[in-house]
Amino acid sequence: MRWVQPDSIHLTLEFLGDLPPSRVPDLAAMLDRVCAAQGPFRLRLRGLGCFPDPRRPRVLWVGLQEPTGSLQRLQKAIRTGCADLGLEVEKRTFSPHLTLGRVRREAGPEAVDFASQALGGPEAETAGEMAAEMVHLYRSELRPTGAVYTRLHSAALAAAS
Fold first, then answer.
1. Residues near 116 by beta carbon (within 8 Å), at least 6 away in sequence
2. Is residue 161 part of a domain?
3. CA 29, CA 49: separation in Å to the nearest integer?
4. Is the peptide bond before 54 cis (omega within 30 degrees of 0)?
5. How many Å apart are CA 62 and CA 7, to the nearest integer?
6. Pick from 26, 44, 75, 96: CA 20 to 30 A from residue 89's CA?
7. Contact assessment for residue 3 and residue 100, using Cβ atoms and an 8 Å cutoff
8. Is residue 20 part of a domain?
9. Of the given ranges (9-13, 51-55, 111-115), which has the lowest mean pLDDT?
């Protein structure tokens, strides 16, 4: 398992792939508008899982729950805003999670055992809560040691709750 560095753990609301730097001002303005219309909310960390599945784990994650629908509305507004800017957006359904680690390609059956134990243990219950108060636009650069993230813009969730 290659664990994600704590300062690199993040929730991806929309993955945009390679974009020219000239698109950043439009994205930043859209994020400012979307975030100004929504207030902060709380997220619950709950449940562990694997992509694509526990028999072939490549990614170990912890799920996020937000019972009021604020997270789903925020993500949908950002996806719509990106599409309105002519950007290609994800086709997959939004699945809120934090990636904790990636299973190395050379891992054998022990990776499956580890994932099964992690998914079935008491750690799978609610693991805490956190506040969502900001949305950040990041550039990611893949390196052999893992992704390096550079913050390009931040927008506060600002509307009254």
1. 54
2. no
3. 35
4. no
5. 16
6. 44
7. yes
8. yes
9. 111-115
Alpha carbons 36 and 38: distance in angstroms, whole number: 6
CATH of the domain at 149: 3.90.1140.10
Residues belonging to the chain: 161
Question: Is position 41 within any domain?
Answer: yes
pTM: 0.86
Mean pLDDT computed over every residue of the chain: 88
Could you read off the pLDDT of 44-103 as tens digits, one per residue? 998 888 888 877 888 889 999 999 999 999 999 999 999 999 999 999 999 999 998 888
| Domain of 59, in residue numbers | 2-156
* Pairwise CA distance, residues 11 & 48, whole Å: 15
Selection from 51, 3, 10 nearest residue 150 by Cα: 10
